[in-house]
Automatic annotation (TrEMBL):
BP GO terms, sorted: cytochrome complex assembly
PANTHER family, sorted: CYTOCHROME C BIOGENESIS PROTEIN CCS1, CHLOROPLASTIC (PTHR31566)
The protein's name: Cytochrome C biogenesis protein
Membrane topology qualifier: Multi-pass membrane protein
Membrane-crossing segments per the record: 78-96, 132-154, 224-243, 503-521
Record field: compositional bias (Basic and acidic residues): 564-573
InterPro entries found in the cross-reference section: Cyt_c_bgen_Ccs1/CcsB/ResB, ResB-like_domain
A GO cellular component annotation in the UniProt record: membrane
Compartment list: Membrane
Ranges of Acidic residues composition bias in the record: 574-587
ResB-like domain: residues covered: 76-557
Pfam families named among the record's database cross-references: ResB
Length: 604
């Protein structure tokens, strides 16, 4: 629809491109996505007779099929499939115990599941992330992404270096279209169109009697950024897994730690990690501070957990002070020191029958509940002699509560996590602790297999509850154990070195940006044609084409048409001329012709 006083914008659901090759060219290359290829037949073609013909045919077949498989591997469909398989493959690594994390749990699982254990072992489910099948998926996805990105990048660079295609011959075939007649010269309309499109950040050029413009390159750029970010994330994760280390250390107030493998309570690291990769530093735990809610529904909830430390870097580094808090680690080079746990370490003194001190130390005990009810073992392995002067070993099962409910008010369970009413309960043993056998032991447990319990004069098992400063005497003149008034606290630290984490974070943020750009930015082209009609009046045509149908395209074209129309308004005819077919009989003589609403868009 066209008249001398209207600016018509309409949107069509279908576009007929038959017979107009320039329209096909205008819609081409709105995307850098590779074309899908169907399942081929024979690449070799007719086979020539003889051995030479067979070799040539075989070579063509191998090359053809190789190229076809490469196209399939680098297609978006296969990349998404591999990404889905990678996600599925990671599920067993979260649900099944892994040898790289906890070997003991893996052994317990195998003993408890006589059928599933060997099956999982053969499938590599106890070491998912280093298994052959997971590595194959990982590498194929990596190759697929690279093979997809490289050609699309060169194609996108070519599009950036190119110019918007010339206007199709028949703009009325495009999904969004506007037209009007104006008294302005065609050159003036085209200059106005170049200026308007430039202000709207279109890349525009003059092509014959039309202005061609294009916008939305960030869509394809975002798509490429998303794929590149995935590669960066894959490399960063692989690098981090190969060179990472993660160790735990329990430190009592006043003690220290040096970052060497032998100092850790337990440590796990990647397959390419070596001792030389450890950051050289050391630190001492000066004081641990923990405060708790005293009243209300959150009574006992921690308010403050912080560890005051002094640290130095290298063998001769200057000593510095720092405070480590939950989720606020101490960063030293590539290592991060996290505060992960807390507990109490009662100080005890053990004496033999002659009163000589054979053991004096703060003994860390492990918490059992949120109120820090703690248990552990005290082992006296060397230097102790019994009442007869014979060498012996002592062991004590210890249960500690920082806030005791009081005698006759229940079992040994703490009522509050702070040191309000500390009590230490002890059971005493003597005999062979089993440490001389050379087998590893849990320092927080007591193996009573070769031990005997002390008994009092009445034949009852010796046990007692001690307040700070109190002493439990062993029967028969075998010594004593004293619960000292000095109760120390301990803090559990986790030292993590994971190179590539910064790259992984950057890749994740870039992937989000790229995905958002590829989803919300539309690639579109606009043409503005201005020609002189048969009656000498300039005819202006504007049309737009997007990569996908969108209601915003006609709206944007309507906005652009309104801006151009302001500088090249609709031709005003004499309403008193009876020969004017477009004259409005109801309009007052001499009044300006109003700008009608644009069809398919809001009125401007």
């Amino acid at each position: 629809m066209s008249d001398t006083r209207s600016t018509d914008v309409h949107s069509e659901t279908t576009t007929d491109t038959t017979g107009d090759p320039r329209l096909d060219e205008a819609g081409a290359q709105l995307s850098t996505a590779p074309a899908e290829t169907a399942m081929p037949g024979s690449f070799g073609g007719p086979r020539a007779p003889g051995a030479k013909g067979g070799l040539i045919w075989t070579a063509r077949e191998i090359i053809g099929w190789s190229r076809w498989f490469w196209r399939q591997l680098t297609s978006m469909r296969v990349a998404l499939l591999l990404l889905f398989l990678l996600s599925l493959g990671a599920i067993p690594g979260s649900l099944i115990p892994q040898t790289g994390t906890d070997v003991l749990k893996v052994e317990d699982f195998k003993r408890a599941h006589s059928v599933l254990g060997p099956l999982y072992d053969r499938l590599g489910l106890f070491h998912v992330y280093s298994s052959v099948w997971f590595s194959a998926i990982y590498i194929l996805l990596f190759v697929s992404l690279i093979g997809c990105i490289v050609p699309r990048t060169w194609q996108f660079v070519g599009q950036l270096r190119g110019r918007p295609p010339a206007a199709p011959k028949r703009l009325t075939r495009l999904p969004a279209y506007a037209t009007w007649r104006t008294d302005a010269e065609p050159e003036q309309v085209r200059e106005t169109a170049l200026e308007v499109l430039g202000r709207r950040r279109f890349r525009a050029r003059l092509s014959g009697d039309a202005v061609a413009a294009e916008k939305g390159y960030l869509r394809e750029f975002g798509n490429l950024v998303f794929h590149v970010a995935l590669i960066v994330m894959l490399v960063a994760f692989a690098w981090g897994q190969l060179f990472k280390s993660e160790g735990n250390k329990l430190i009592v107030e006043g003690d220290g730690f040096s970052n060497t493998l032998t100092q850790y309570d337990d440590i796990k690291y990647g397959s390419l990690f070596t001792d030389d990769d450890l950051v050289p530093f050391s630190f001492d735990l000066k004081n641990f501070t923990g405060t708790y809610e005293r009243t209300g529904p959150n009574k006992g909830t921690p308010r403050t957990y912080q560890a005051d430390v002094t640290y130095s870097v290298g063998a001769y580094g200057k000593e510095k002070k720092a405070t480590v808090k939950v989720n606020r680690p101490l960063e030293i080079g590539d290592a991060k020191v996290y505060l992960v746990s807390h507990g109490y370490a009662p100080v005890v003194t053990v004496r033999d029958g002659k009163g000589a001190v054979v053991f004096h130390a703060a003994v860390p005990l492990l918490p059992l509940d949120s109120n820090v009810t703690s248990q552990g073992a005290i082992k006296v392995m060397d230097g102790y002699r019994n009442a007869q002067g014979q060498r012996d070993q002592l062991g004590f099962l210890a249960l500690f509560v920082p806030t005791f409910a009081g005698a006759g008010k229940g079992d040994m369970f703490s009522q509050f996590p702070a040191l309000d009413f500390p009590v230490l309960a002890l059971n005493a043993y003597h005999g062979d602790l089993g440490v001389d056998a050379g087998l590893p032991q849990n320092v927080y447990q007591l193996d009573t297999k070769n031990l005997k319990q002390f008994k009092d004069a009445k034949g009852n098992i010796l046990k007692d509850r001690l307040l700070p400063g109190e002493t439990m005497k062993l029967p028969g003149g075998n010594g004593s154990i004293t619960f000292e008034k000095d109760i120390k606290e301990w803090a559990g630290f986790q030292v993590v070195q994971q190179p590539g984490s910064g790259w992984a974070l950057g890749g994740a943020l870039a992937a989000i940006f790229g995905l958002a750009a590829s989803l919300f930015i539309q690639r579109r082209r606009v043409w503005v044609r201005a020609t002189t009609g048969a009656d000498g009046v300039t005819v202006v045509e504007m049309a737009g084409l997007g990569r996908s149908e969108s209601a915003k395209l006609p709206e944007e074209l309507g906005d652009l048409a309104a801006l151009v129309h302001d500088r090249a308004p609709t031709k005003t005819d004499d309403p008193d001329d009876p020969d004017d077919p477009d004259a409005d009989p109801d309009q007052e003589p001499g009044a300006p012709s109003p700008e009608p609403a644009a069809e398919g868009a809001e009125q401007k």
